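MODEL INPUT / OUTPUT PAIR
PAIR INDEX: 1
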Amino acid sequence: MRGIYIVANDRVRENAIALLSSVRQHDPKVPVYLIPFDDSYQQVATQLRDLYDVQLFPNLDFLNSLTQTIGEIFPRDFLALPNKMRKLAAWFGPLDDFLYIDTDILFFTPVSETLAYLDQADFIWCDYHFKGGLEDVFSDRVVEQGLFSPEALGDVFNSGLWGSKKSALTLDQLYQLLGECAAHREYFDFSNGTTDQPIMNYLVLKAIPQRLNIVKANPGEPGSWGGSTHFERRGDVLFDRDCPLRYLHWAGTPMREGGPYRDLWEHYRYRNDPTGKIAAEKRKADVNRQKRAQLKANFGLSSLKMQLKMQLKKQIKALVNKSSTRP
């Protein structure tokens, strides 16, 4: 069985709904499983189930055990929050072939088309991260020590979107490789605040030799980064010149009101949730009222200060005049 895993909690509920809206528009039947990021997942799980038939990861005991073991492998000053690695549970869930998708993504094509690349490899991804070298993945120490071949280092990837097979990695392999990572933090580049990405790359390059980057297999593949400003919206899809994007990944680009491609995100977020749209518009109106009230209060305070300042000037001037008329 092929399908999708996402990791989410109630804090990223809005993004998760937008993602699943985009997935379901283009691929209504693909199975989707929610891996809870932590214990605060009831709202997002309920809403995704009701709107988009998303199922909860069926083995929460395993998920908790995995998180605990990872926390024991890594020192706290190396990996402060083991929950960041819960996406690794995808290798041990019910899906034989799967695609993992971060919640700051929108999909514009059937996910089944991307999953089909698993017919050619045991691990797939679709990005141009390799063009930036080893930034946000490995340090120079990895090159100096020859841990990977130059060809393997050309396979570094962004850990927000990737696919694999359940058979590609065993739990024993996983724990062994995580132990190697924990013993060699000098291998990794965490300088820009990445968490799981360097470790994910180490695991995959060490354990899964049959890899495929879709952008290399498909030379006409467009970009996907939400920080790119040249994409053009046509209907419900973004285009890079005349080529429709497979997906859009904000990947560190702020997802906020007035941000890049926010109108498209709002389209997908509220496409099947008119109640959510009404609530969002009410929140926006409340915020705008608060801003206007604050501006009015600030203006009133400024006006009062100006009046007091003018009165003080008059009093000083009167005292000076009075003093100058004395003999």
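PAIR INDEX: 2
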Amino acid sequence: MPNIMEIQDVSKIYGPLKALQNITLDIPPGQWLAVLGPSGSGKTTLMNIMGCLDTPSLGEVNLDGVKLSGLSPSGLTALRREAIGLIFQQFHLISYLTALENVMVAQYYHSMVDEAEALEALARVGLAERARHLPRQLSGGEQQRVCIARALINHPKLILADEPTGNLDEANEGLVMEILHGLHNAGATIVTVTHAPEVARHAERVIVLEHGKLVTDEYQAHPSHRPAGDNGRAEGLGGAAAGGPGGGFGTGGPVAEVDGADGFGAEGPGADGAAAVSSGALDTAEEGGSPEAGA
């Protein structure tokens, strides 16, 4: 089966700064890859290139058989909308829309809205009872789960998660990782960008970046995870989100709620700034701007 993504000898150069240097990487379908590195290592720059949010200075990137260098900016946006689900550390929810409406925005720019499917998506991440709440009425963990539901609603070929637990406490971090494990078990292709080894160890493959260079590429014999079905919470989160037919994320039970445990209060990060929804629909910020290239 062809690779979902092929990165060949990619560099990103900003004047005298080489943010990425000669990166070569293939990602087959169904793989969970973690990109690990400290601040300034180039991991976010790599994620932005993978997510069609930026282009390389040198080298080639192919996504689902499409060569990115041959696409216009509007073509990159269209491909991102069709093929990629983005999960951001800062959530980037639209402050004046409910959780349900934030998910439906991604549907709107992809094809057509389906409220029942959007409600099902929120139920799969344990937010059925919070669907009509605004971002400021949700905890940080709940906002991140809305972001996950939004990223998966259009059944992307590739899920890119940038520090998905970076703003969460331990309880909500575990909940988000359970969701990702359920998706991976159902066949989803996932790339997690993180500075935290304890997050990277959940993936089956880990690459390490230092100063823009790929220094380690290793497969883990025993990735850290909870088996699907543990406490009835991880199973069935894949389904259509992993490329299968039908709506929602599969047929398993919803994820249990963990409310208000992350200490961000009612406003929470991302309550006031809307940016680049995971379908690629919104590429400008209401107040905060789109994700930055670099770190």
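PAIR 2 NOTE: Residues 5-242 form a domain with the Rossmann fold fold (CATH 3.40.50.300).
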